Amino acid sequence: MRFVLPGLALLLAGAAAALAADAPVEVVHPWARASLAGSINGAAYMTLISHEGADDRLVSVTTPVAESAEIHVSRMKDGVMTMRPLGWVDLKPGVRTVLEPNGVHVMLLHLQRRLKAGDSFPMTLHFEKGGSEEIAVAVEAADYHVGHMEHHHQ
Ligand SMILES: [Cu+2]
Q1: pTM for the complete prediction?
Q2: Could you read off the pLDDT of 16-25 as tens digits, one per residue?
């Protein structure tokens, strides 16, 4: 057994590399907040790692779960969290780009249905060079992220 485990680890590492090679941009833990009562918008987050040899950009996002999806960035201004649209998200080869609460996020405008914890929905990421990538976004409990709920459009 002593010698089997390192071999297995190598195999798994190989499998992960093969998966990553299939998609130019690796998407780690795509998730969205469960809808609060009365909320019509939502937000999705993920970590992007480009495996291309050159810079790329996430330029747009589409999903059937919302009327439209926009790339936004949040920032604290005078004690209030505000956000504005970003034209794109820059990706550097091999560098983790994190979309997270209080930072860059995918804004889901006019949700077509309530997002419930445990559900998932499809989303397509469009990259400037890396083509398009279909992912499944997991819906996670909203109360897990209390404190990041203040969203005001400028
Ligand atoms: Cu937003």
Answers
A1: 0.78
A2: 444 444 678 9
Q: Count other Cβ atoms within 10 Å, centred on residue 65.
A: 21
Separation of 96 CA from ligand 1 center, angstroms?
21
74 Cα to the center of ligand 1, angstroms: 7
Q: Tell me: the pLDDT tens digits for 107-117?
A: 999 999 999 99
Would you say 126 and 91 are in contact if contact means Cβ atoms under 8 Å apart? Answer: no
- DSSP 8-state assignment for residue 119: -
Ligand 1 centre and the CA of 86: distance in Å? 10
SS3 50: strand
**How much distance in Å is there from the Cα of 64 to the middle of ligand 1?**
18
